[in-house]
Amino acid sequence: MIRSSRRKTIALQVSNAQVIVRAPTFVKTAYIERLIQAKLQWLEQKVAEQKQKSRSTPHFTLQFVGEKLTNNPTVYIDGVPHSINIEFGRKHVLHNVSRQSLTVVLTESYRQGDLNSAATLAKVKSQIDCWFKAHIENYIAQNLMIFSKQLALKPTAFKVRKYKARWGSCNNRGELSFNYLLKMLPSWVIDYVIIHELCHLKHMNHSTKFWQLVATHCPEYQLAKNWLSAHQPYLRW
């Protein structure tokens, strides 16, 4: 449960098959528990649906035979699935837009070890994480400034990090946070997330006025929400 002194309403959310409750500080726990019981059937249905989607979507894994990658792993970049290639040499990550591929170059030391080990998988994911973060930070910095002027709403600061169950957030100090996995999304959906969080600087809730403000500056916001919902199983990392 996440409580906030600025929140005026209670929100129940199911993300990654987990129930998240957001509530004002003044609402008693007993009332929230009764609300959860009243919505229990809906919550259980959503949890079951997301678990089923999770089971049907393979986790990111690497399977080598010798030095050849055999299981064709993919990751979403800019809203499009990209194939992963592994090479050895000077550590870096290369994005080929036309071929829709991401090449992760590991140092030669990994060639000498067990390529199917958890350590190799962790290193590949770590290099992709760093690449995600570096590229999305630049995009957010540029577009946050543009949309901030458009909305006449300016955050006190922003940061980019990894979150398990949210794309962005806004706190009561006017600070915005964004998930670096936004690099997985198409740019128009990222723009929706930026506008969404900027609108929280004026409305720290999801009231009618909040959504009206979002719609004014992002008319396709419902399409963006639908895209996120439809692709959620493929955006796990």
Structural features:
four-stranded mixed sheet; 237 residues; single chain
Specify the helix fraction band.
40-55%
Largest sheet: 4 strands, mixed
What is the overall pLDDT average? 91
Order of strands in the sheet with the most strands? 6-7-9-8
User: How would you describe the shape?
Assistant: globular
Low-confidence stretches at least 5 residues in length (pLDDT < 50)? none
- Structural class, from helix and strand content? alpha/beta
Ends: how far apart?
23 Å
H and E order: EEEHHEEEEEEHHEEEHHH
Fraction in beta strands: 15-25%
DSSP strand count: 12
Please tally the helical runs, counting DSSP H or I stretches of 4 or more residues: 7
What is the C-alpha radius of gyration, as a whole number of Å?
20 Å
Describe it:
There is one protein chain. With 237 residues, the protein is an alpha/beta fold. Helices cover 42% and strands 24% of the residues. The protein has seven helices and twelve strands. The protein has helices at residues 29-38, 40-56, 108-111, 118-151, 187-199, 208-217, 221-231; strands at residues 2-4, 11-15, 18-24, 64-65, 68-69, 74-77, 80-88, 92-96, 101-106, 157-161, 168-170, 175-179. Strand 11 and strand 12 (175-179) form a beta hairpin. The chain starts with a strand and ends in a 6-residue tail after the last helix.
